[in-house]
Amino acid sequence: MSDVMPDAMPDAMPKVMPKVMPDVMPNVMPNVMTDVMLHCADVGVRFGGVKALDGVSCVLAEGQITSVIGPNGAGKTTLLNAFTGMVPMTSGSISLRGERVDAQPPHVRAGKGILRTFQNLEVFTNMTVLENVMAGRHRKGAYGVLDAFFKTPRYHREERECREAAMRALEFTGIAEMASLPAGELAYGNQRLLEMARVIAAEPELLLLDEPAAGLNMRETRELGTLIRRMRDELGITVALVEHDMELVMDVSDMIYVLCFGELLASGTPLEIQRNPAVIAAYLGTDDEDYPDGDADDDADDGADDCPAPDDSAEETGREA
Ligand SMILES: Nc1ncnc2c1ncn2[C@@H]1O[C@H](COP(=O)(O)OP(=O)(O)OP(=O)(O)O)[C@@H](O)[C@H]1O
């Protein structure tokens, strides 16, 4: 155990123990030694009078899938946006592999490997599938405008490498045979896979997935779960997943954080979260007979009003302050 471990450990011990303990640990701590990819400490975000996040701390362990769940408006997307720098924080810090990044703009963090997908599909429908994926890969290219204009050997070499990497990403996601089709002709589920291929081709270190199962049927959602696990296991990508589909979340997650009205309600393994009385009462609901086999999405929607304040100060959080 690291010599920087605090003397007094929290009562509830999480499952992923970072090698170097951040100064603010989640209320549940892991038991497998692993590196910290991203550490967010005491993060606050306000939109006018609304506290979207208030004092949220969490750890994304390297090479693991960490999910963030919670009712509508709980602050999940805002947390991802804080990771990428797309919203200004009113308090707290964010570190990537121990380096503070919260003062850095989104493109700098993207250059360090923090990439994301969005709730809404962002596919260029008038481009081919391959061109879409190559567009995602181009952030890694180093040739300049003059190289492109004069079609220099460097330009040709990098374009070939870009094309090869894009094809590998399409093969990984299982849609390589659609490479030459206009992206707009793909069925919705395949457009989701295209989006995944594009972000895979960009070689993320930390991939933030914002409701990737939205609009997918049950079979497609299961296949997506398999793909996300393969991204972790075969590509070594650290994943942060925001998702309402509880079957998917419980299936793929190593660690889960539960947000409620902008505050951290609980954290733990899927089993711990399923057994957590506060989570059951506030979010998952006790009357879903199918759970955890069924989709608890409806509960997620319905649970918002039931979400208890994690502490006395939470009354304003996620609502008008
Ligand atoms: N750009 C914005 N301007 C004003 N308020 C915002 C903005 N973005 C989010 N909010 C508010 O912040 C709170 C958290 O929103 P957020 O989208 O992060 O929740 P969420 O948990 O991702 O919800 P959902 O599951 O519905 O996507 C909500 O009260 C929301 O209305």
Automatic annotation (TrEMBL):
The keyword ATP-binding applies. Residues 38-286 form the ABC transporter domain. GO terms for biological process: D-alanine transmembrane transport; L-alanine transport; L-isoleucine import across plasma membrane; L-valine import across plasma membrane. It holds the Pfam family ABC_tran. Keywords: ATP-binding, Nucleotide-binding, Transport. The keyword Transport applies. The lineage of its organism: Bacteria, Pseudomonadati, Thermodesulfobacteriota, Desulfovibrionia, Desulfovibrionales. It comes from Desulfovibrio subterraneus. Coiled coil: none annotated. This is ABC transporter ATP-binding protein. Residues 285-321 are annotated as: Disordered. Residues 286-315 have a biased composition (Acidic residues). GO terms for molecular function: ATP binding; ATP hydrolysis activity; L-isoleucine transmembrane transporter activity; L-phenylalanine transmembrane transporter activity; L-valine transmembrane transporter activity. InterPro entries: AAA+_ATPase, ABC_AA/LPS_Transport, ABC_transporter-like_ATP-bd, ABC_transporter-like_CS, BCA_ABC_TP_C, P-loop_NTPase. GO terms for cellular component: plasma membrane.
